[in-house]
Automatic annotation (TrEMBL):
Listed name of the protein: RNA recognition motif 2
Species annotation: Macleaya cordata (Five-seeded plume-poppy)
Organism domain of life: Eukaryota
A GO MF label: nucleic acid binding
Domain Mei2-like C-terminal RNA recognition motif, chain residue ranges per copy: 32-101
Amino acid sequence: MLIEMLDHHCIEQNKKAKEEEEESDHQSSILSAYDFLYLPMDFKKRLNLGYAFVNFTSSVAAMRFYRSFDNYNWEVFQTSKICKICPARIQGKDRLIGRFKHSCFECDTDDFLPVVFSPPRNGSTSFTPPSLVGRRSISLTTTTTRSSIDQ
């Protein structure tokens, strides 16, 4: 759902940028794209924590996203949540990778791990599979049964 929303945003912004480029005969438009994504989860509740790390490939792309989604009324799951865009303490794809590459996530699928997109995603239909950042750790509660503890 988050990737679809980001892709749709990039498609719309890139379409606008190309139209503006054609109208002005100026060929320096910056496309919107992102190359890192992580949606932290509460694995016990199987819900996200309400924030995400998204690295846009340019400050222009980040500002476009900010203008589109800051204070956006996010009506999902019968609650009204307001989207607030804030800069993260850690900036840039390489620094985000460095932050999460040694992290272990207690999840049962790679779907919850941070990902890097190379080339960056810009909403086009062709893309390569993402590279995973970090690794899954097997929780003691999922691998040990009560009977094996008693032995």
